[in-house]
């Protein structure tokens, strides 16, 4: 449960910081012109009045004729929320995998520092545990794969039998 809480809390903080960056930086999305639908007369008028800052006027509301909410969303390109979500989730899960590996190494090495086992005892015990865990994981995967494959084959057979 605490793992889930830390996942959600960290995601919330990361997402909040990203949203603050979106509002502060306000980079335009690649499809901003389709969202904005600029009024050509206003663009021409501002171009003639202020040639130096012409590139900046497209981002202002007064020339956009599109839906204001869609235009507002068009200004929030940086950073990508989808990329953030996926990267955060995979980084968190990867950290957990390495974290448990480090815990296993720490506990194993503590047996040496406590003078309970020799180095070769710990290495061989670690190897036995690692091989057993990998083998068990493989068996579970193989049985699941075989069940799924049988289900697919059974579906194909029933489809063939049901055809006239």
TrEMBL record:
Residues 1-18 form the signal peptide. InterPro entries: PAP-like, PAP2/HPO, PAP2/HPO_sf. It is found in: Membrane. It is a multi-pass membrane protein. The chain crosses the membrane at residues 86-107, 119-141. It comes from the Eukaryota. Belongs to the PA-phosphatase related phosphoesterase family. This is Phosphatidate phosphatase. It comes from Streblomastix strix.
């Amino acid at each position: 449960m605490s793992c889930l809480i830390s996942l959600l809390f960290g995601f919330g903080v990361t997402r909040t910081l990203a949203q603050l960056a979106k509002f502060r930086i306000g980079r335009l999305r690649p499809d901003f012109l389709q969202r904005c639908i600029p009024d050509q007369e206003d663009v021409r008028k501002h171009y003639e009045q202020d040639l130096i800052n012409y590139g900046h006027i497209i981002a202002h509301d007064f020339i956009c004729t599109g839906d204001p909410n869609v235009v507002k969303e068009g200004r929030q390109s940086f950073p990508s929320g989808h990329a953030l979500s996926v990267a955060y989730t995979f980084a968190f899960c990867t950290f957990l995998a390495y974290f448990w590996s480090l815990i296993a190494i720490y506990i194993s090495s503590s047996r040496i520092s406590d003078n309970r086992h020799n180095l070769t005892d710990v290495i061989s015990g670690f190897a036995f545990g690692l091989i057993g865990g990998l083998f068990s994981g493989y068996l579970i995967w193989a049985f699941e794969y075989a069940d799924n494959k049988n289900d697919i084959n059974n579906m194909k057979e029933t489809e063939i039998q049901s055809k006239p």
